[in-house]
Write the structure tokens for this entry.
Amino acid sequence: MTARLPVVVLGATGVVGQRFLRRLAAHPRFEVAHVCASEKSAGKRLKEAATWRLGGEEWAGLGDRVVAACDPDRAFAPVAFSALDADVAREVEPRYAERGALVFSNASAFRMEPDVPLLIPEVNAPHLALVHEQRRRRGRRGAIVCNPNCTATVLASALAPLRDVFGVEAAAMTSLQAVSGAGYPGVASLDVLGNVVPFIRNEEAKVEEETPKMLGRLEGGRVAPHPLAVSAACLRVAVVDGHTEAVSARLVGAPSPAAVREAFAGWRPPPIASGLPSAPRRAVVLHDADDRPQPRLDAESDGGLATHVGRVRACALFGVKFVVLGHNAERGAAGASVLNAELALAEGLL
């Protein structure tokens, strides 16, 4: 059996950090060597530093691990999974990359840097080659690889089959976003129960900015953004996990809804992405029932890493419209970073 690579989890006490620990505890290729968090938590055991917020075994059996500060001089591994807030990530992640780690980040701090891959393995695996450009330009032994904003991830995962089969010219998206996307404790119950909050700070801009980069082409050491216009409206609703998005798209050639359904049903990601240890059985699942997908019924399937599409129908303005669902905390956070690291390992970068 191939030896497991040691990894460090940055921000291990938070909810996304806990999802990392749960995924990595029994991972076939990665092994948790260090758990890191703020100086306030450093020196404590995990189970003393924070409260476990997920289902399953508390702390994934790692509760007695001693928390270290997020400092590569004190806790280093060749693979770093970052669940840090953007402000902290901006300082910490480059230090790990300069020391030689490949940092797989959930933070927004470096997503739009031209030499940083904004990666979804099924959608844009060739973008991982930006790691070589980043190392060359910045003189780093390691590199930073970002997964996108969770809402943009769901949108890009649904648009990728349409890009590949037809070409996408424009998309308008309205999201109904789970409260877990705001972290813990997140949105106050009196604000969201029986209510819809029509504003999530910076979310719409991230979706509109990140989606063209993800769907773009790697050309000469940079990503040429996909030439599509994206309009996003992002709303918070009283759902625990799973972002639902209503999407209208204008496609090249104005294909019929039947042709779009056929494209979703027949699309497969590149073999290297399909063969990763955590890859879902189907990257995009097409639903036939009029009332699917639903967060309660579909978000957790395939470990939360599948993207679900349904209600494909004609749109009087754009040509076609549909509903898409993805697990914001897995496909849009911890699970996405683990998939990205698996791709880097498969590509020989680790």
The two ends are 17 Å apart (CA to CA).
